[in-house]
Amino acid sequence: MLTMAVHAQSVPSEPVTASFPPSTDRAATESDKTLGAIVVTAKRLDDARNALSPQTGSSVYRFDGSDINALPMGENTPLNQVLLRAPGVVQGSFGQLHVRGDHSNLQYRINGVIVPEPISGFGQMLDTRFADEIRLITGALPAQYGYRTAGVVDIRTKGTETDETGEPKSIGGEVGGVIGSHTDREVNAQVQGKLGHVSYYLSGSFVENNLGIENPTGGSQAIHDHTNQRKAFGMLSYLLNNDSRVSFLFGSANSRFEIPNRPGITPQFTLVGANAPASEDLTSSQREKTDFQILSYQRKVSEALDYQISLFHRKSRLEYTPDPVGDLVYNGIASYIARSNDAYGIQTDVSYVLNQRHTVRSGVFAQREQFGVRNTSSVFPAGADGMQVSSVPFGIVDNTSHTGTTIGIYLQDEWTATEKLIINYGARYDQVRTVVDEQQLSPRIGLIYEFSNITRLHAGYARYFTPPATEKIDATDVSKFVGTTSALPSDANNSVRSERSDYFDVGVSHQVTRNLTLGLDAYFRRSRHLQDEGQFGNALIFSSFNFGRGKIYGIEGTASYRNGNFASYLNLSISRARGKGIETGQFNFSPMEQAFIASNWAHLDHEQTVAASFGASYLWDGTLLTADAIYGSGLRNGFANTTHLPAYIQFNIALERKFDVSVFGKIKSRFTVINLFDRSYQLRDGTGIGVGAPQYSPRRSFYVSVSKPF
Q: Could you tell me what percentage of the chain is helix, strand and coil, using 3-state DSSP and rounding each to the nearest 5?
């Protein structure tokens, strides 16, 4: 079952003591005591680390290991698909998520440390498999959360496995594989354990199939859509003593995608000495590669004082390779585009319990980036009317590079005003010097009020400062493409700006019965320089731009039920997201669009009025039966997003069973059907602001997974 805590309170944990079962084997007993004591110490430090990150006044949706296993694909579910089962989350194209009317703007944290965002078109940098718990934190966030504010995806990594008696295993893990529709082949492995004072977790996966990106047609099979994706993650932790430890996290994602083709498209341009290939035979592709490393030192100085210091590094690169002839004759431009970003920095978080009523938290974040774009394009000469005047192309080089810094500091106090009321108030200051030079002081306040032991209210206000993601800034020199078949709609070229917004959130949760919990949450956001993203070129790369003003508001309802072996959940959200006046990136918009949006509130392309998700699972005689469904009323499309696509619903089912095989021991198997009723629906139709091509949902697909725990 997916369970929701509409709000959360974090306080430093009390010391944990261990008890050990009696044993006649003194050596074994001493060994168990040592290993058990290490586990207890690590758990104590885990609790202290978690206390560095309060969510007072925010909305928190949690997925633990059993919740993830209850999804139709289990641990093989991509991370974005896990989050799609949370309230207020809408699926977009190319694997993107839109949380509470925002376009991406998600921050990922692993064990409390920010992972610098990668450059990505549609690949997933992080795997679900290494997560022990995933929390999506939205709403009016406390002062320690900055930069990406639509939501914080906080991942707690897996630790040491235990045996049937609950004792820690020195080594454990699982190896498995998946086969299925679209020639899907997957292999994965994970191992974890302890060796003295060292604990470790390592995982890796390889995925290959013929549906790497959404199909641009409604058929069951995509054309030229092969992908292979390799991912790895590792965590090493060393206990220095009972009160401190050093940990090292690292991860890598390397993905290659063929760009899917649409048949029957007519060439728009002619190239001297070349015959236009059929549109289904084009060969453009994209590669995405990201690596990150995080080194952390954590110490519990006393029962009152905890801190963690982390050094991080992330290197990310995206490379689009065109079909040199096909892109020219169909689009009038063939561009090799490579974006790179190298980020490194430090993050510190400190928590100090002043007394029984006040816990003060503070921290600093500093990041240095080196980023650049290589853009080598072939285009045709064109007249004033934009029509091709020569079939001989020529080259344009439009390269840029920058360095920049981001610095932030926060201070906040969690005040237990009464037995029923907790108030968390504070502020953060951020300064960004990248392609923009801006700063802001942002006050925050959130509260939790306990009406009773079954009813809880939360409310909050947050001033947000959202600098543009440097890896999504379009640095195109518009003047270089004037008089070509790739001339942009206008010549305005204002630099993207940081968004500044006021965010209000209020919600309530009520435990109706012992088994049933309900939640209701409402939010409103008012913005200046509202940031949005779009795919404006042939490459599947998103670029940022700003509306002058924005307003986003909505309401979310949740329900979760558990009774014995049966569990279920239901999420329903209604949202509005609108912007007015194109303030930056005007060169991507036609004069007609700019004029309309200057005088009208335009729906954002990712606005979906109604979104819902439902799931249920039942454990019957050792067999897990699970099903879920996703509903959407349709994303926006048409001129200036004035219309929307039809509504859709997708059902998925699965069953999982464990077997005892004489040679191999315990084997876990799962059979999954995605899109059970084979409904063909469009996520995008190629129209709307910043929408480059149609995308359809996957048709009915079958998957079989088998894994061997050890």
A: 10, 55, 35
